[in-house]
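Figure 6 in text form: structure in, sequence out.
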């Protein structure tokens, strides 16, 4: 759908597709599914973050037994939050090109 889109548009389209492929028919993910998706699809950003208090807070919220499910908006906020605290972000900031 975004074959001619910008790199940023493609990145967000990919995030939406990954989310949608994992979401239930109502477009939501359980907390356990969200945690699993992060571990399989976002591992480079979350590796090495285990000792950071904010990371522990986020993951413990996903570990809580709850009926609450996560919608796409909350999922994107979660991805952005994890990206901002990631050590990988510091490495990415040093790169000047996407090609």
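Output sequence:
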């Amino acid at each position: 759908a975004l074959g001619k889109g910008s790199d940023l548009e493609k990145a967000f389209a990919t995030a939406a597709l990954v989310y949608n492929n994992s979401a239930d028919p109502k477009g939501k993910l359980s907390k356990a599914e969200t945690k699993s998706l992060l571990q399989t699809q976002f591992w480079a950003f979350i590796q090495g973050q285990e000792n950071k208090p904010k990371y522990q807070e986020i993951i413990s919220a996903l570990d809580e037994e709850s009926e609450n499910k996560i919608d796409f908006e909350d999922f994107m906020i979660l991805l952005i939050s994890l990206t901002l605290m990631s050590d990988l972000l510091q490495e990415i900031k040093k790169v000047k090109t996407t090609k």
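Caption detail: The two ends are 21 Å apart (CA to CA).
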